[in-house]
Amino acid sequence: MEISDENFRVWAENNEVYFDGVFRLAGPDAYAPIYSLITGLLHEGHKQVTFNLTGLEFLNSSGINLLAKLTIEARKIGDLLLIVKGTNQHPWQAKSLPNLKKLHPLLDLRLA
Amino acid sequence: MAPRIYGIESLADISLDSGARLKLSDGPLQLGWKHSGMTSDFIAEIMALPYARSRKDYLQAHHDIGYLSNELIENAVKFRQPGEILIEAGMVEGSFLIRVKNAIDSETSSRFQQLLHRLQLKDPGVLLLEQIETNAISPESGSGLGLLTLLSDYDARMAWTFEENKDEHIILTTTAAVAMPPSSNL
User: Fold this and answer.
1) What is the C-alpha separation between B75 and A54, in angstroms, rounded?
2) pTM of the full predicted structure?
3) Interface predicted TM-score of the whole assembly (ipTM), two decimals
4) Which residues of B touch A58 (CB under 8 A)?
5) Contact residues on chain B for A27, CB-CB shorter than 8 A
6) Could you tell me if residue A53 is left (phi over 0), alpha (psi between -120 and 50 degrees) or otherwise beta?
7) What digits encode the pLDDT tens for the residues B137-183?
8) A104 contacts in chain B (CB < 8 Å)
9) Residue B12, CB-side half-sphere exposure with 13 Å CA sphere
10) pLDDT in tens, A5-25
11) Were B65 and a residue from A66, B44, B55, B103 both cysteine, which residue would form a disulfide, CB within 3.0 to 4.6 Å?
12) B21 Cβ partners below 8 Å, 6+ apart?
């Protein structure tokens, strides 16, 4: 399972999804294939799923919208633990990732 | 007719004559989108250089300038009427300032002014979470998060000026500023 272009790569290994590069797609329609890929994984019956964002250098606001929509999807699945791994090396993460925690208080946000 | 201004009015008057000035010509959306990314990367590269002595300050300045520029230029590309987009950018009193000017149609103008009205009444952080929840249940809606993330997550100061043109278009000028790291060697 992988989606990529010259700027980014998204792939899943078991129950961990990796986001790499720069997300600057033109809007929800352009992000739809990535949304479908990850929503599929969320509904596979795992006890926990991890979004690994440590390689995601930059994203536009439509990319933030994608992460928020996926968080809401995980929230709807009552017994799924969502872990979000981030890094303080990419300044957007400390600024915008805490919003995900506001959407889903049980989300486990790990910013290192 | 007198221009209508929303946000921090004093920002709209600040001169950027000594800053950088770029014009993006009209063209297909796909190309405009590519130019939006390239232009914001370019502005971040040249404007963040004075912070290069500290890796932490440099990363912060480069990212904040890049994100702010990218959101403003993406909006201009997405909503513009045929014509060029004028971009001015510079450093003013410890802040990075960018001004983007382009034509929009009257429908976009009134929809946008409604959003700016709502912004006067509510905290941008609250509006951001509300917009995210709305987007999650209505997949056809655009993200609409650009300005809200800038105001809520980046503490951006912003002003919007709407001027009626001779034809039926409205000229929208957006000015935005974010504070830069204090320990610069400017």
Assistant:
1) 27
2) 0.95
3) 0.94
4) 63, 66-67
5) 78, 142-143
6) alpha
7) 886 666 679 999 999 999 999 999 999 987 779 999 999 999 999 86
8) none
9) 16
10) 999 999 999 999 999 999 999
11) B44
12) B86, B87, B88
